[in-house]
Write a structure and sequence with these properties.
- By secondary structure, the protein is α+β, with helices and mostly antiparallel strands.
- It has a single domain, classed as Alpha-Beta Plaits.
- The protein contains seven helices and four strands, in the order E-H-H-E-H-H-E-H-H-E-H.
- The protein has a four-stranded antiparallel sheet, sandwiched between helices.
- 29% of the residues are buried.
- The protein binds adenosine-3',5'-cyclic-monophosphate.
- Adenosine-3',5'-cyclic-monophosphate (CMP) binds next to helix 4.
- The site of adenosine-3',5'-cyclic-monophosphate (CMP) has 9 residues, from helix 4.
- This is Nucleoside diphosphate kinase.
- It catalyses: a 2'-deoxyribonucleoside 5'-diphosphate + ATP = a 2'-deoxyribonucleoside 5'-triphosphate + ADP; a ribonucleoside 5'-diphosphate + ATP = a ribonucleoside 5'-triphosphate + ADP.
């Protein structure tokens, strides 16, 4: 099924000059980019985005980190895009992430893991995360050439 999925390059990727490299992975895979912006999140926005982790011991560190520099929220479209992107990104823990995955190649630790993607096991995640970052008119329509 053709679908849209939410992905975000994190501040550590920016600090290390890896943002373009990470965005290229999805482009080269043939996914269609329909939304992208550059911003520094305020705490309120970050806390809402990571609301499901509110009770976790690492929540404050997570919010500190994700607001510490620029992020690139994106929406990528394609066949089975959510699962495809999760596979490309690899496991959350870099120690578990396979070489060849984005985290397997670049992530430093659990917090500084360079990229976020909506959870494919959480059915409402894409809709919720996309609408938290993008208005409908910020998602562009065009034909992707082969
Ligand atoms: P992400 O996919 O953005 O979703 C939640 C994030 O919480 C996750 O990536 C990790 O970066 C972060 N995270 C998970 N576990 C820990 C932890 N134990 N310590 C710090 N950050 C964590």
């Amino acid at each position: 099924e053709r679908e849209r999925t939410f992905v975000m390059v994190k501040p550590d990727a920016f600090a290390r000059g890896l943002a373009g490299e990470i965005i290229s992975r999805f482009e080269e895979r043939g996914l269609k980019l329909v939304g992208m912006k550059l911003e520094v999140l305020d705490r309120e926005h970050a806390e809402e985005h990571y609301g499901e982790h509110e009770d976790k011991p690492f929540f404050d560190d997570l919010v500190d980190f994700i607001t510490s520099g620029p992020v690139v929220p994106m929406v990528w479209e394609g066949e089975d895009a959510t699962r495809q992107v999760r596979q490309m990104i690899g496991a959350t823990d870099p120690a578990e992430a396979a070489p060849g995955t984005i985290r397997g190649d670049y992530a430093l630790d659990l917090g500084r893991n360079v990229v976020h993607a909506a959870d494919h096991e959480d059915e409402g995640a894409n809709e919720r995360e996309i609408s938290l970052f993008f208005d409908d008119d910020e998602l562009v329509e065009y034909d992707q050439h082969d």
